[in-house]
Design goal:
The protein is an alpha+beta fold. It folds into three domains: about 1-55 and about 280-420, no CATH class; about 70-100 and about 240-265, no CATH class; about 105-235, no CATH class. The chain is built from 13 helices and 14 strands. It has helices at about 5-20, 20-55, 90-95, 140, 155-160, 170-175, 220-225, 245-260, 275-315, 320-325, 330-370, 385-410, 415-420, and strands at about 65-70, 85, 100-110, 120, 125-130, 130-135, 145, 165-170, 185-190, 190-200, 215, 230, 235-240, 270-275. Strands 1, 3, 4, 5, 6, 7, 8, 9, 10, 11, 13 and 14 form a twelve-stranded mixed beta sheet that branches. It has a two-stranded antiparallel ribbon with strand order 2-12. The radius of gyration is 34 Å and the shape is elongated.
């Protein structure tokens, strides 16, 4: 191992590199390009992955929504075009028949889907907002962050149909004076007084909620707007380890049976599967990472083979020099070690340059997308352990490929080398 720190060894290595400048640079670029491609592609894929996680970080990953529409096929004596209404009773039926459901929240809204918004008044301030009839379980599907001193809806609010509400932070800013405490105060929703029990903090990544939404107990919503047992839609979260696509199919199939809908009627029950979307994004990200790994390794391997070819040419050109060294007492191990060290050195330099270039490109992409709210993309990075592992693989490949010219150098007999012209 002493030859690694020997000055003469490194002088010979750099002398060999100087003799083959152009070939060395081209080959080093090949190795550099391989690890650059791996870091750039896998880091970009991770940025997309991070972006979607950030955009929906307060929403259950395996969540979905189901709502009713009109039928498109006649069934069991019913005509086409029949309007379907989801019911509260459907909740227990779905839980019993689809055990993969972890949480299910019936929801109603005034201010969307054809219904006019609710008029909300507080003192001299008034505006129109969407008012949601919710159960407390909805906060487990889409997390609600409440400012200090407040709370979201609870079971007692549902049981006693309390006239309480949790309002979005923009609604608070619109209805209350700056610095005024909203919690505990009263607002009028469609001429009915409600006490504010919490202010929902709006954050990017809060899922599908808006900062002007107002949430009241579902049972209170029923009585005020006379909706009976009707449900606007179901927000559903499945367990983490289940097939969300199959769960969605089971939910729609069950709802069709409950409401006498033709099994092949695809229009009657609408749905949106966030879990499936997340799965596709994750699959794309993993595919990009795998592709970058394959392309990167292939390019690195091609570059490393190029380094081996350069060293073979170098050994041939230095036949006489190596013969003199052997004649002066250099051991086969020292000759072999120098050639392998040169291979590893070139591979390591190319790898480090590729990592720096890849990190620079990812940093540039991050700066360009930092304030982009139109597309979910955040912090494109490659974990340090993966970078170090790829660098270690390069060193191993460099060592292995260096064995070929090293063995060629060792196989040269001193007497034959000295006769070489």
């Amino acid at each position: 191992m002493r030859f690694i720190f020997d000055r003469d060894t490194w002088q010979e290595i750099f002398g060999s590199i100087r003799k083959n400048k152009l070939r060395t640079v081209i080959t080093v670029i090949g190795v550099l390009w391989g690890i650059f491609i791996y870091i750039a592609l896998s880091g970009s894929a991770k940025g997309l992955d991070n972006g979607f996680e950030e955009a929906f970080k307060f929403t259950a990953m395996n969540s979905m929504f189901a709502w009713a529409r009109t039928t498109s096929k006649p069934y069991e004596g019913y005509k086409t075009g029949r309007r379907i209404n989801l019911k509260l009773q459907d909740v227990e039926t779905l839980k019993n028949r689809v055990p993969e459901i972890q949480y299910i929240a019936p929801r109603m809204v005034k201010g969307m889907f054809g219904s006019g918004p609710a008029q909300v008044v507080r003192g001299k301030h008034s505006d129109n907002y969407s008012v949601y009839g919710d159960y407390p379980v909805s906060s487990k599907i889409a997390t609600k962050q409440i400012y200090n001193g407040g709370r979201f809806l609870n079971d007692e609010d549902i049981k006693y149909s309390r006239k309480v509400c949790a309002i979005g932070e923009k609604a608070e800013a619109d209805l209350f004076e700056k610095g005024e405490e909203a919690v505990g105060k009263f607002i009028r929703i469609d001429n009915i007084y409600f006490q504010v029990i919490g202010v929902v903090k709006y954050k990017e990544g809060g899922g599908l909620d808006s900062d002007t939404d107002i949430h009241i107990p579902f049972t209170t919503f029923q009585k005020i707007y006379n909706t009976g047992d009707n449900v606007g839609w179901f927000a559903i979260a499945a367990y983490d380890d289940v097939d969300v696509v199959q769960v969605e199919k089971d939910i729609k199939s069950t709802l069709k049976k409950i409401h006498d809908i033709h099994p092949e009627d695809e229009r009657a029950i609408g749905s949106f599967n966030l879990g499936e979307m997340f799965g596709r994004i994750m699959g794309f990200s993993k595919g990009m990472t795998f592709l970058s790994l394959i392309v990167g390794i292939a390019t690195i391997l091609a570059g490393v083979i190029g380094i081996g070819n350069i060293l073979l040419i170098s050994v041939k050109e230095r036949t006489k020099e190596l013969g003199v060294r052997r004649a002066l007492g250099a051991t086969p191990g020292e000759v072999r070690g120098q050639i392998i060290l040169e291979s590893v050195f070139l591979t390591l330099v190319a790898g480090i340059m590729g990592i720096i270039l890849g990190a620079g490109v990812l940093n540039l992409i991050n700066n360009l997308t930092a304030n982009n709210d139109d597309f979910p993309y955040t912090n494109p990075t490659v974990p340090i352990p993966l970078v170090l592992a790829s660098l270690a693989i390069m060193v191993i490949l460099g060592t292995l490929i260096g064995l070929i010219p090293a063995q060629r150098a060792v196989s040269i007999k001193p007497i034959d080398a000295l006769r070489e012209e």
